[in-house]
Amino acid sequence: MASDENNPPVNQWKTLDRDLKRFGRLEAGSHSISRGLVAPGLALAFIVFVGLVTAVLMGGQTGQLVVIAAASIGAYMAINIGANDVANNMGPAVGSRAITLLAALVLAAVFESMGALLAGGDVVDTVAKGIIAPSALPDSSHFVWAMMSALLAAALWLNLATWLGAPVSTTHSIVGGVVGAGIVAAGFGAVNWDTMGMIAASWVISPIMGGVIAALFLALIKSKVIYTEDKIAAARRWVPILIGIMAGVFSAYLALKGLKHLFKISLLEALAIGLVIGVGCWLIAIPLIRRQSEGLENRKKSLKTLFSFPLIISAALLSFAHGANDVANAVGPLAAIVHTVEQGDVASQVGIPFWVMAVGALGISCGLLLFGPKLIRLVGDQITKLNPMRAYCVALSAAVTVILASWLGLPVSSTHIAVGGIFGVGFYREHYAEKRAREKGISKGKPVPPEERKRRLLVRRSHMVTVAAAWIITVPASAALSAVVYLVLDRLAS
């Protein structure tokens, strides 16, 4: 009997163990859910903070509630820009392993904010670049509802696109929002359809230009550097040239964006500035690349080291340029609402108050840090495999394409250009791999069978279909959302 008391049955604690496991699974599930709510909670806190600060700044002025609501929506819009649009700048650098995801998030947040606050547009067209004339709307209150509807609809669409994993254009989202609200408020005749036709054309022009230019740069690197007998010697000659091109193009672009606030500058003058800086950077890069390449083995892997740092610099400059250009477009409707409420009239162009630009800059940084990793991984990893050389071609293509588009007067999207560049690099790799396989097969008398050619595809077609579909429906989707929001707001106000 004593032995039975000292040795309890083996299954005595079976029920307790089962209950503890249930509690453990419940606790783990609760932790998982709570982690998923942290980012939305912080985003909501930022939106509330912006609303409170706006209330203090307005100080009981007429229309205070309208401006507070618009500022909160503007903060929500900026968060979604950071979550979706900025991935195009940092995705290639992260996907090529030139920089870690955390470092990319911090770098992009800093340079996006700097671009918005230092070189962002101090004057913006209030109705998305002349799509709808303010005079076409019945009065200033309808104009305010139209702008607020456009802002909220664009933010909702960007939020949905991010959730679906599709990089879309911020500017096109705003354009669609303005069109939808404008049609409901003033009819189809109020829309400048010629401008809309140009924007629709950019859906095709932007990615094709970006893809072709990126593919050409990759073809140049492959022929002049990668597939040469002495790769290090070729890199010492060509990498400084590519760095000079990058520096020159970015300098010309930023001169157009930044110096125009101080004095009028033409495209030709900006290109001259870019040429001088580009040549200077080329000369500086020659000894630096020579020193960096000392002791490297004559193989392809060594070349990645020489391209990594220039790639990080180009990604930072792309973020600065994006902050300078796209933030103004995003907060333009908010600036228009603030001006209309304070002045009581509708202007074709308005100045952007510093606090409005700060909402855009800080909101983008917030959205990027909280929600950016998803799209950065998709753009950098899941369309095609990138290394520093391919990613550098994408970044260089984006800068060159924007300058060419400015020269040609084409309304292009930086999102479409960057993603198009990634597809261009991927398709060129497919073409080059198949060409080499065909030549090898012919030399051996063994043609490449169709199933083997299909296996060699280096671009994921499913992502191409998703992205293309999202681009096509961005304007109609945001327009439909904006129309519904406008009808609701107009009904509530009446």
Content-based structural category: mainly alpha
First-residue to last-residue Cα separation: 88 Å
> How many whole angstroms does the radius of gyration measure?
27 Å
Counting DSSP H or I runs of 4 or more residues, the number of helices is 16
Q: Pick out the low-confidence regions.
A: none
What would the principal axes of the Cα set say about the shape?
globular
- Main sheet record: 2 strands, antiparallel
> Whole-number average pLDDT?
80
How many structural units, i.e. domains?
Answer: 1
What is the ordering of alpha helices and beta strands? HHHHHEHHHHHHEHHHHH
Across the major sheet, the strand order is 1-2
Amount of helix: over 70%
How large is the share of residues in beta strands?
under 5%
Number of E-state strands: 2
How would you explain this protein's 3D organization?
The protein has 16 helices and two strands. It is an all-alpha fold and 494 residues long. The chain has one domain (41-493). Strands 1-2 form a two-stranded antiparallel sheet. The termini are far apart. The mean pLDDT is 80.
